[in-house]
Amino acid sequence: MARKRRRAEQRTPAPSPPPLLRTKSSQRQPVVVFAHGAGAPSSSDWMTRWKEMAKDALDAIEVVTFDYPYMSGGKRRPPPKADKLVDHHLSVVKNAVAEHPGHPLVLMGKSMGSR
Fold first, then answer.
1. How does DSSP classify residue 21?
2. Which residues contact 45 (CB under 8 A, 6 or more apart)?
3. Contact (Cβ atoms closer than 8 angstroms) between residue 68 and residue 79
4. What pTM was computed for the model?
5. Contacts 24+ apart (CB under 8 A), 36-40
6. How many angstroms separate the CA atoms of 76 and 20, rounded?
7. What's the pLDDT tens digit per position in 31-81?
8. For the chain, how are helix, strand and coil distributed in percent, rounded to 5?
9. Which end of the chain is more exposed for a tag (fewer CB within 10 A), N or C?
10. Which residue in 58, 39, 45, 40 sits closest to 108, CA to CA?
11. 91, 101 in Cβ contact below 8 A?
12. What are phi and psi of 35, to 5 degrees?
């Protein structure tokens, strides 16, 4: 009679992380601007985890996160219309590009922050 395998032995190993998305060592590391969603700030656990994963996966020189102005003050309220968010987002992008001239730019966002 064959022995039953333990659950731990039946589990498949965790997949290896994906290869870096940059394929040539001569390519410059990207700078990533990562915008949060409507409900949680850039300091949330979810954003922090994804910031680190993006940095590793893209071999980014920096992943810039920020909070839209409506998130300040600690009072939860709905976001304003997109045109007000775009101006702030654009200023963050311009600052990131100015800090890392010549590096590719990657825009990334969660939910509302990706629109």
1. S
2. none
3. yes
4. 0.74
5. 36/65, 36/66, 36/67, 36/68, 36/71, 36/109, 36/110, 36/112, 36/113, 37/109, 37/110, 37/111, 37/112, 37/113, 38/78, 38/79, 38/111, 38/112, 39/111
6. 37
7. 999 999 888 899 999 999 999 999 999 999 999 999 998 887 767 778 888
8. 35, 15, 50
9. N
10. 58
11. no
12. -95, 140
| Residues contacting residue 43 through CB under 8 Å, at least 6 positions apart | 67
Would you list the domain boundaries of the chain? Answer: 27-114
Residues paired with 7 in a beta bridge:
none
The answer for residues whose C-beta is within 8 angstroms of residue 68's C-beta and 6 or more apart is 35, 36, 79, 85, 88, 89
Amino acid identity, position 70: Y
Residue 112: both structure tokens together: 């509302």
The share of the chain scoring above pLDDT 90, in percent, equals 51
